[in-house]
Amino acid sequence: MRSVAYTLALTCLASSGHAQSVALLKGDVLAFEACFIQLMIKKPDNSTLDMIGPIICGERHIPMGQSCDALGYMLFDRRAASHAEDLVFWQSHVSRRAEAVIAEGRNGTGGLYGDGLTLCEEVAAAGDDPVGRLIKIHWRTALEFVAADLVADLARAEQ
Fold first, then answer.
1. Number of Cβ within a 10 Å radius of residue 116
2. Contacts of 68 (CB under 8 A, 6+ apart)
3. Taking the CB of residue 106, how many other CB atoms lie within 10 A of it?
4. Contact 90/138 with Cβ under 8 angstroms?
5. Taking a C-beta distance cutoff of 8 angstroms, is the pair 35, 56 a contact?
6. 72 — alpha (psi -120 to 50), left (phi > 0) or beta?
7. In sequence order, what are the residues at sequence separation of 6 or more whose Cβ sits closer than 8 angstroms to the Cβ of residue 93?
8. Are the C-beta atoms of 69 and 82 separated by less than 8 Å?
9. Cβ partners under 8 Å of residue 131, min gap 6
10. What is the 3-state secondary structure of the chain?
11. Number of C-beta neighbours around residue 65 at 10 A
């Protein structure tokens, strides 16, 4: 139990350091990380956990809507602006994190990111507005980075 508390304390420090150069995430990042740790403990051999875990825990603790309050999404005249602001918010998180990872010599984003963007292009070509899907793709990818940082921090703590 003491090692879990120590790990969570390290996680708190790691999370706050990673998010300072762009706007901080609204929601409960510590609860997100605790949720992801619990999934790792419950399903240690799940090869898709790095993709599915951030979505599961993100839906519970980190809302996709970061830029506007609920009223902004309810009012038709503000909804489009809220979506645009949220897309910019999540894109900035993903691009900053991807640049840092690429600088380390690794792939900046996972395969699902590129596949999702391709799907959004198809949706746009069909005449539909892909903004909601684009937000979800960038939200998911940003949370995958948070989860990857958590895994790296836990691996360092075990050494």
1. 20
2. 78, 81, 82, 85, 86
3. 10
4. yes
5. yes
6. alpha
7. 22, 25, 138, 142, 145
8. no
9. 83, 84, 87
10. CHHHHHHHHHHHHHHHHHCCCCCCCCCCHHHHHHHHHHHHHHCCCCCCHHHHHHHHHHHHHCCCCCCCCHHHHHCHHHHHHHHHHHHHHHHHHHHHHHHHHHHCCCCCCCHHHHHHHHHHHHHHHCCCCCHHHHHHHHHHHHHHHHHHHHHHHHHHHHC
11. 17
Please state the length of the chain.
159
Show pLDDT as tens, one digit a residue, over the chain (159 residues): 334 333 333 333 344 344 345 678 999 999 999 999 999 999 989 989 988 999 999 999 999 999 888 777 778 888 889 999 999 999 999 999 999 888 888 878 877 788 888 888 888 888 888 899 999 999 999 999 999 989 988 888 887
- Supply 121's token pair: 């292009």
Give the CB-side neighbour count of residue 38, counting CA atoms within 13 A: 8
Tokens at 76, concatenated: 């038709």
* Amino acid in the structure at residue 157: A
